[in-house]
């Protein structure tokens, strides 16, 4: 009886411990899902330290007095963000640090990470032919990796669609573009894998592929799998701005011209047309650094050069440009499109991030590499 009673007590304690561990583990899994508020966005509120006045004085010297844009610098727990100048032509409102810009080709970094999410889940294989997933894909020997690294040799759609898209008052979307490429099949500029040829078509195709594989519209997949776990509440694609975004969305400009009129190519997503601000791009940096989007092995893979660094130290990984200099290798992307100039520079291994966004060509002439090196090495 005593032995039986002890066994019962022991079993009860064991069940209690298992239940407690299960609850803790379940709680941990809930945190792992990173759905921490009513909208499903990761809570990005943290305490950050300030840089020294000497550092900030040297930092601001990189930006001319007539610079118009927003800047964010992060280094190992220290954060600086600031808006400079005005949002438009003379006597326009002052720039605000949460203003939202078209990211232009910096959009490709998000498309690449979205692709890696599907690779991590086993739904895509990096070296598989695109034809495996899209049976009507018009370029049979091109792989997923070649799209990501701009080594597919595919022709740039921007040089051809003006002969196809006659109704320029209406946006062309990725399905329209895909149909055009199937029907017209522009002659490739290179054979697949032969060499690097930067081309927006690669990333427009990837956006279409992501939608087909995930069963979600591309913009929705990115919101669920990148924006929310990263806490990027002020990011959206053209045509899909949510009600929650109250920040000011800016217009690109070139000299004395503002791009107010719609442009049909803006409707193609993946290669461009992502809108965001400096803070959200910093959150994207943190989410990658902390493994909230993809694991560290895949992040490291994205930073491997797809060809030898050239004489200037440049190469391209999976969705990021790579720059090797005396400080090590930077993982970055710059962009320009219809009056927007953008830069997103990272050292994930050193907890360093630099974001510069402007909607003025004159303000794009900032030494980004010099700025990034200073942030890494300066005190």
Care to give the gist of this entry?
The chain has helices spanning 2-33, 53-60, 107-120, 144-148, 174-184, 200-214, 218-230, 278-289, 296-302, 368-377, and strands spanning 69-75, 78-84, 101-102, 236-237, 253-254, 257-258, 274-276, 314-316, 321-325, 328-337, 340-347, 352-358. The strands form 3 sheets. A 7-stranded antiparallel sheet has the order 2-1-12-11-10-9-8, sandwiched between helices. Strands 3-7-4 form a 3-stranded antiparallel sheet. Helix content is 34%, strand content 15%.
Structure characterization notes:
- With 379 residues, this protein is of the alpha+beta class.
- It has one domain (53-377): Beta-lactamase (3-Layer(aba) Sandwich), CATH 3.40.710.10.
- It is built from ten helices and twelve strands.
- It has helices spanning 2-33, 53-60, 107-120, 144-148, 174-184, 200-214, 218-230, 278-289, 296-302, 368-377, and strands spanning 69-75, 78-84, 101-102, 236-237, 253-254, 257-258, 274-276, 314-316, 321-325, 328-337, 340-347, 352-358.
- The strands form three sheets. The protein has a seven-stranded antiparallel beta sheet, with helices on both faces. It has a three-stranded antiparallel beta sheet with strand order 3-7-4. The protein has a two-stranded antiparallel ribbon with strand order 5-6.
- The longest helix is centred in the first third of the chain and has 32 residues, at 2-33.
- The chain starts with a helix and ends with a helix.
């Amino acid at each position: 009886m005593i032995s039986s009673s002890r066994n019962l007590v022991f079993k009860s304690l064991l069940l209690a411990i298992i239940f407690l561990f299960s609850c803790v583990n379940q709680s941990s899994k809930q945190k792992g899902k990173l759905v921490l508020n009513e909208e499903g966005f990761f809570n990005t509120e943290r305490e950050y330290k300030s840089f020294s006045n000497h550092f900030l004085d040297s930092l601001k010297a990189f930006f001319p007095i007539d610079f118009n844009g927003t800047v964010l610098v992060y280094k190992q727990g220290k954060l600086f963000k600031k808006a400079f100048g005005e949002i438009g032509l003379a006597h326009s409102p002052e720039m605000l640090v949460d203003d939202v810009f078209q990211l232009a080709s910096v959009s490709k970094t998000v498309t690449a990470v979205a692709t890696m999410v599907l690779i991590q889940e086993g739904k895509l294989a990096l070296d598989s032919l695109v034809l495996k997933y899209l049976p009507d894909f018009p370029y049979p020997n091109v792989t997923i990796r070649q799209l990501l690294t701009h080594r597919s040799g595919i022709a740039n759609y921007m040089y051809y669609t003006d002969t196809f898209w006659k109704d320029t008052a209406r946006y062309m979307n990725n399905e329209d573009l895909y149909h055009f490429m199937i029907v017209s099949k522009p002659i490739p500029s290179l054979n697949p894998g032969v060499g690097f040829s930067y081309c927006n078509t690669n990333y427009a195709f990837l956006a279409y592929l992501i939608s087909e594989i995930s069963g979600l519209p591309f913009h929705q997949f990115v919101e669920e799998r990148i924006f929310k776990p990263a806490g990027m509440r002020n990011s959206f694609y053209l045509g899909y701005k949510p009600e929650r975004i109250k920040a000011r969305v800016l217009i690109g400009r070139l000299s004395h011209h503002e791009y107010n009129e719609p442009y049909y190519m803006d409707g193609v997503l993946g290669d461009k047309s992502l809108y965001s601000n400096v803070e959200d791009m910093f959150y994207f940096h943190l989410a990658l650094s902390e493994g909230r989007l993809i694991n560290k092995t895949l992040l490291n893979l994205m930073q491997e050069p797809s060809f030898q660094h050239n004489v200037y130290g440049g190469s391209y990984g999976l969705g990021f440009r790579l720059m090797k200099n005396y400080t090590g290798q930077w993982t970055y992307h710059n962009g320009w499109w219809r009056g927007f100039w953008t830069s997103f520079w990272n050292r994930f291994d050193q907890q360093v991030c630099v974001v510069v966004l402007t909607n003025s060509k004159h303000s794009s002439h900032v030494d980004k590499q010099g700025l990034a090196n200073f942030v890494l090495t300066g005190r």
